[in-house]
Design a protein that fits this description.
By secondary structure, the chain is of the alpha+beta class. The protein is built from two helices and three strands, in the order βββαα. The chain has one domain: Irregular (Rhinovirus 14, subunit 4), CATH 4.10.80.400. Strand 1 and strand 2 form a beta hairpin. The chain is elongated and about 80 Å long.
Length: 85
């Protein structure tokens, strides 16, 4: 196997969450910063937490309205040519 092909593996990578929780895992990065962990995720806590989704719902609704307002061009069915005898 070639030397230097694989990235360095850190067995004690420190992961920090925005809620303040910190734990260690094995990774190819020395430090990892995350927004949500198992201590603050709504699925595990049962509490709803608002996340910044940058208006994804509004963008989706705008695309749907634009698609509904555009005229769709329908192609005519191709009729096979009949060979003359």
């Amino acid at each position: 196997m070639k030397d230097g092909l694989h990235p360095a593996y850190y067995e004690k990578t420190k992961v920090t969450c925005s809620c303040g929780e910190a734990f260690t895992v094995g990774s190819t990065k020395p430090e990892i910063s995350v927004e949500i962990c198992s201590k603050c995720h709504p699925f595990f806590t049962g509490q709803e937490k608002m996340l910044d989704v940058a208006g994804k719902v509004e963008k989706f609704k705008a695309r749907q309205a634009k698609a509904a307002s555009t005229v769709k061009i329908v192609k005519k069915a191709r009729v096979p040519k009949v060979e003359k005898e």
